[in-house]
Amino acid sequence: MGREQERAVLDLMLSGAAQAPFVAYLHGPGGIGKSSLVRYAARQAELAGRRVVHVDGRFLETDPRRLEEAAAPACSEPGTVLLIDTFEQCQPLETWLRETFLPRLADQAIVVVAGRVAPDAEWSLDPGWAQLFTALPVRPLDPAESDALLAARGVPAEQRGAFVAFAGGSPLALSLAASVPPAAPGAPWYPAGDTLTTLVERLVGDLPSALHRRALEVVAQAYVTREPLLRAVLGDEDTNTVFTWLRQLPYIEVTPEGLHPHDAVRATLEADLRWRDPERCDDIRARISLAGLQAVRSATADDALLRVAEWMFLFRDHDRPDNLYDHRKHPHIEDTPLRPEDVPAVLRMAEAAEGPASAAAVAHWLRRQPDAFRVHRYTGSTTPVSFMAILRLDAPLPEDRAEDPVIAAVWDLVETAAPLGPGEHLGIRRFAVQPGGHQQPSPLMELISRRTIAEEMRTQQRAVTFTVFEDADRWGRYLAEAGMPQVAAVDVGGLRQHVFGRDWRRQTVEQWVQNRARTALTPLATWPATAPARGPDDQLPRAAFEEGVLEALRTWHTPRAFATSALLHSHLVTPGSPDPAADLRGAITTALDAIQTDPAGVKAHEALTATYITAPRTHRAAARRLGVPYGTYRRHLALAKERLTEQLLRQSATTPTPTPPHQLPRE
């Protein structure tokens, strides 16, 4: 599947054309498809009536006599095709092969070498070899080729996206992933233990020591790895030697920015570590996150946004198509200070996106704090295409309150709940305006987010911070997961502006970046969340409530996600509760106990508990635990979900019920 360019070179060599190379050297990481191309060359050679001599480098033990013996027919029979696979296992023979053995091959013989290590430069520097040799780097399949491979393996179209995202274009990873069915029909696919073990063995191979494995685990988590990052995470334990070793690996790309692993290797190592040792995985992520904070703080102003983008890579979400942020660079957009000639365009954009009342507030802050504004424009153009403003406020001023209702509401909040101390100030990302797709995820919104995060990471003496979004439904969940709940909603000229906030005095930036990286921790909301007003008879729509129940069960053991449940704003949680997540757990636990009123209810309780609360890895494992056939288990589970939903709809808000220790995730 794919590989047209590589196959074309091999076909040209087999045709005997005068311009064809004598030696083709295929190189790339394990599982990328080199051996498949070697087998293709063998089949085509046999169809052409040529003698094929296949040598496996794993059995040569770097002894030239063994290679000479195995490849002897190629020295005596004209037109022989010599294929040397897994050449990395006998790489020390490369110079001998080029200078001593290959010149002795029979007329019209051709050679295909395949290995993980790229050929040395002498092949191209030697004038005698330059015209006879070609290096063929075997690269990952593109998404279309990956999809076609999965289709050929019979994988349904709706499942291919998860496989393609995980495999990173590796044919081996795609094939192994396709061989593992999902836990249940329609359930999302995740790589399991056996698949991961095989992939690590095939893609990565044997590692010299535990230190080398830990170094690879860092590379798998970080967007780019430099030696200072490795030292920050691993300590001074021979970091220089390990970094040099990493640079030489065939599945590590060395770039001016640092080291990047092949996508399939990254995904495999990351998933394998989380499966084997989730606590160590979180610890590595927390250390990388803290090192990322230090990198942002020590960067120049020009590099700070790039360092933030690298830090944000830790929080990418492979499984969500509506991921709000993209860790990649956007070199076609410039983030610049406000220029005097930008003011008319900024005001026009504000009015077009948010109306005249918001434009009036922008005009006020353009006069008061012009340095707070950043303007974005496409490279080579002077025309502003979006803008933002991060205000720094030390004290409430009457004119600020009068001109900007959002700032008036923010000062009311601060004075009531979190008064500023001597030398402290508040920060607020007040405006984020892009006409057209206002506040929708885009490269422009990513730059705005990066600038906001960089400001928070680099600013001293900031006591509290706020950010304002019009689209609370889109951004609220992400901000809640980051520990920044909604604290106010303000009407500005008929447009609802939602304010999200945090108090850095309750959780420092250093603590936040580490907790943010630990997937098993519930985010610490450092400001009392403002729940939407709710009357005694208000309920979520039935469909939203049912989906909320299923999502709460699925995220029972992932507190960060559970803490953003839609059910937190349902009748199951008392308004103003100091711990709404605990209340919701108590309500669900109470409902689970309450459905055990008859034999069917007991089976429903067992199915839900075995599937979600005691958390086996798959639905089939839950069926085995219950001792029932898989089909029977699925029927019990479907009925159990309906029964639990009905019970929760009837149930009133409850005080959290003590839950057996095995049912609660560790915080």
Automatic annotation (TrEMBL):
Keywords: ATP-binding, Nucleotide-binding
SUPFAM superfamilies given in the database record: P-loop containing nucleoside triphosphate hydrolases
InterPro entries, sorted: P-loop_NTPase
MF terms (GO), sorted A to Z: ATP binding
Annotated segments matching region Disordered: 648-667
Keyword ATP-binding: yes
Key word Isomerase present: no
UniProt biased composition (Pro residues): 657-667
Official protein name in the record: ATP-binding protein
Species of provenance: Streptomyces coeruleorubidus
